[in-house]
Design brief:
This protein is α+β, with helices and mostly antiparallel strands. The chain is about 35% helix and about 30% strand. It has 3 helices and 4 strands. The strands form 2 sheets. A two-stranded parallel ribbon has the order 1-2. It has a two-stranded antiparallel ribbon with strand order 3-4.
């Protein structure tokens, strides 16, 4: 994969709390990213340990999925409905 191509960086941005909804949806997001092969990269980022990531991408709600092109955010989504994420992936990777 080259960084000049469009691909979905699936940042499952979460907090340390074991009760955070992002932990519940994490396996589904990871599987969804795998379905897109090298077009999607799945990464987990704990904003408690990486505050600079939250600030850079203006993360205000969790879980959060960001679409990056060459490191720039071009799309994002948050929530806990996997069907919404499926549609988001299709739209971003069309």
């Amino acid at each position: 994969m080259t960084h000049s191509s469009t691909y979905l960086s699936v940042f499952n941005v979460k907090r340390r709390s074991e009760y955070c909804i992002s932990l519940a949806i994490s396996p589904d997001l990871e599987e969804l990213a795998k379905e897109y092969g090298d077009k999607a990269v799945y990464l987990k980022v704990n904003v408690d340990d990486n505050e600079e990531v939250a600030e850079k991408f203006e993360v205000t709600a969790l879980p959060r999925v960001l679409c990056l092109v060459k490191g720039d955010k071009v799309g994002e989504m948050f929530g806990n409905k996997i069907d919404n994420y499926k549609e988001f992936f299709k739209t971003q990777l069309a």
